[in-house]
Amino acid sequence: MSESFGGVTTWRGLAALVAPNGWGRFLQDRPLVALAALLVLLTALVDILSPGAVSPDWVAATLIFAAPLGLIAAGQTLVILTGGIDLSVGVVATTAGYVMATLSPNGAVEAILVGLGLGVLIGLINGFGVAVFQVQPLIMTLGMGLVVTGVLNVYAQQTVAAGAVPVVPDVIRQLGAGRILGIIPNSLVLWSLLGVVIIVALKRSGYGRVLYATGNNRIACRLAGVRVWQVLLVTYAVAGLLSAVGGILLSGTTNVADRGLAEPYLLPSVAAVVIGGTSVFGGAGGYSGTMMGALILTIVAGLLVVVHAPAAMGQIVYGGIILVVAAAYARVVTEQT
Amino acid sequence: MNGSAATTSGPPPVSMTRYLIGRNGWTIGVYALLGLLFFFTFAVNPKFSAYDLRSLALGALPAALAAVAEAVVVFAAGIDLSVGALIAVSNVLAASLMVNADFAHSLGLAAVVLAALTVAGLINGLIIILSRVPDIVVTLAMSFVWSGVALLIMSQPGGGAPPEFLALATGTFMTPWVPNALIVLVVTVAIVWLPIRSRPIGLSIFATGSDPQAAMRSGVNVVRARLTAYALCGFFSGAAGLALTMNTGAGDPLSGGFFTLTAVATIVLGGVSLAGGHGGLLGPLAAAYVLALISSDLIFLGVSPSYGQVIQGTIMVLVVMAGGLAALRRSAK
Amino acid sequence: MIVSGASMSEPILEIHGLAKNYGPVVALRAADVTVRAGEQHGIMGANGAGKSTLVKILTGVVRPDAGTISVRGQVRAIRSPTEARRSGLATVYQESSLIPDLTLEQNFRLTRTPLPAVRRWLDELGLHGFDARIMARELPLATLRVLDLARALAADPQILILDEMTAALPADLTETVFRMLGQWRKSGRALVFISHRLADVSSICDGVTVLRDGVTAGVVEPVRGHEDQIVALMLGNVPRPVGVAVSSAEESHESSRAAVLEARGLRAGGALRNVSLEVRRGEVLGVAALEGQGQQELFDCLAGVRRPDGGEILVDGRVRSFRDPQDAIRQGVVLIPADRAQALLRLRSVQENVALPMVNRPKRWGLINVAREGSQVLQAIRRLEIDTRAQSEVRRMSGGNQQKVTIARWLASGFKTLLCFDPTRGIDIGTKRQIYGLIRELAASGAAVLIFTSELSEIQLVCDRVIVVFDGSVVGEMPARVADEATLLRTAHGMAADPGSAVAGAVS
Fold it and tell me: Which of A190, A281, C188, C448 has its CB surrounded by the most CB atoms within 10 Å?
């Protein structure tokens, strides 16, 4: 890979110029490039299979549907970075959206705050179990998910019996489905803003540093004086908050608030994180990859609709993509160590 | 490193019986809980009949087998999040193959289904080992793939099986108080697991989960042990799917549902540690019945299923927190 | 035990020219070992001499780059533990091979070892009537080791290899084991005994192969009470390039310096029994000890990594109790562990690694002042001459540079007392000298340093004062100028210091 003759007159020359240490190392250092390429490829595929489908409207719709997934996956990203996993994100999102909707007739702002607060509370309980009692995150969040599902059902029955009808407030509907100047989706703005905050926090704040450190090597953290339980507690609470935001946004996007709202988002949230390059073991990765992952998954879902793929193929392709991408990361990463 | 003769025979200063009881404490506890629950059931429902017992056993059967499937993988310090999807595959495969078969054929077809699912489990294991991707991610992805396979086999609920085949689980044995479902459960597990458990192959599964380095020093083939665990998981998932077919009399590609997560919850309640290396199947079997019994009791008492879910989930959370606390105290010594 | 006339029998194990490299690191250069039938043969060598690599090759865990192994005259290629067993070699490893979560009976069934055979050997060793239904994790370490031995013997091997097996055994059990093995080998088999316990080796071995720097330095027939030959071979007859022996300046003022960190009667975990020491401002106190004499527990207690079972720790004269390392760090006590893997975030950059303590409390979790942090980190990097840009990933650096990063971390965050646990393990000579030089500088500018190194020859390069720890207690204390390798080796092995030295250390 060392030929570059008087400029980039050959493919090899171009390759050598762009990736002097080989493609493997290049992709590993800049996984976003690979993901962006995949994104472009998929978009092209959509246009090939359904000519003219790719329009500004299509882009906007894709972004609108990717945003809630992206937010739910944000919390998942943080938790996975610590080496854990959060199986309650779907439930938390649903709860936040549903409760907000039922309370909204009494004041939209209060309702939203309650929804967010619930997310934080559930996250704190998760964090408590994981950090203090050292319960495995899989089990703790699984159990909390079941508990909250049950509580939500009870709550739903009581509100229905009391005659209250869940209503998604206008402001949320605007947020979820509306657009600025008819083009830029509001949800994209929200997602981008939060995305920037998260990315900056991960890269430039002390919390971000200890988060990565915790996922990397808990012993080193301890020896350097970091109290790991504090990091975990905060992380799960933030994950709960972000899931709640995602759930509220989703209710606005779909203008639906029912108990099945965000259930199907659990596995895709993990998938988005994995595709985005964050290692399941923790300690490496970031949110920008997850955002790309959320977009990719949304486009893939749309793709399957466009080709009228039977549900079966859709599932298989979905699973196949996760496997292939994860295996590619595993191969590239282990080569370097 | 003192010079005393404390090392002559090693065992702790209590009798063997007490030691064995202490070691199996959790399992004994779960069975005690089950017994208490039965008392409770009879107390609130004096009309609890053989029929009720039969439906209990029938309802618990697929979940119990799913728990067994998950437990075997967890023994090897792994996890399989595709158990539910595998169950769905088994269910629709059986229902579509057996729809026009007679009883004799259906038995043969059942064997085919079991073989196919064992291979499926093996595929899971191979992908995990060859791709070097963590088992959580692989089985998560494969859960989508297997769900898709189930949909390919049968896109709508349908199919069927000969009534004699269904009666294998729905009927009773000798007296109305001994449900077939319970017998099927015990026999299946006993025939397949007991011979493996005490042989080197079964022990190597536990060894791999307990301490892979020591296992390698002992000459254990760790790769083979893990593959065996995943293959067994496939087998028992297949059995669970067959049980589901016997239960519903039909196939439903979406029947996988909550099996995976419930299976994990069940084995934790049954005293199996997710860290792997030790545990048994007795605990999870009882735990499956405990959960089924709690659920049916709550329904009988008119408690809405949601409360039931809250209770189940809370129990699980409290149980694992207590377990975590106990582990902490042990390691701090 | 004077050697019997077993030296004339046939060789049962011959190792010729064994070599193994791990990348640029040469673990074995050309090792030769010959063991005869009926012989008990020892293998000794300092850390890094190649002992553990040799064992790994013999047990099939690692394949050699060159050389041959022959058993009873037949060349064998040992590619796996199973093949090692088939070649007639049975090993008792440094760590038990019993599975903790299985019962003894299950453990033996796992390896297809017949229980009666194991019981027979246990009887010979004086362990009667144990119950095989016990789980391995419930048993004390000494029992596990004996069980490992019984299992190895039950495989009826030609050659039995014991790798540091007696380290966990109490004295009486060790004697029983040796007595039994002495009988066992008479049937024409052989025992290979790898240990750093000079006394044990010279008691039971007919011959000892000494490794140094990856080659066989010599073979000796040991005589109990006169182990100097072995020690000399381990050290090398050629005077080692010791480098500038740093003069311990102002020795006479030592005792007048304030003790920054003090331990009184510290006890922990069984291995650490009773250690008291004082680390003073401006002084480097060295700890010399063989493996597993309690020094790990000592450092862990002082750094807040574990709580002592007994005794006290004082900082600046006040008793302190450390719940976790953060408490210790707040008192200015910081630890550099031996295992770089423990201290480093492998996937993160040098900058993040060095700056980690700066964000260790929630108060510090806000936005980072990148410029200020950057300059602090850069200062530390420059001072240590770390050979990389601050942004590259730590895992791509050499071992020496990685160790420098762990030190840079505390340089940048500040400290009063530095605890270094074997900081130069596995590091090249050049970097070692740099690190030692830095430690001397730090002490000169007022820090208190406590350092443990397993490389006894280097104690004099960096320490002002040395204490020797054996079997969990302090068995010797001396100024650095008399702490040469031979003296330390003897004291660390629990023996009296060389009577020929000018100042005799404390006798064990």
Answer: C448
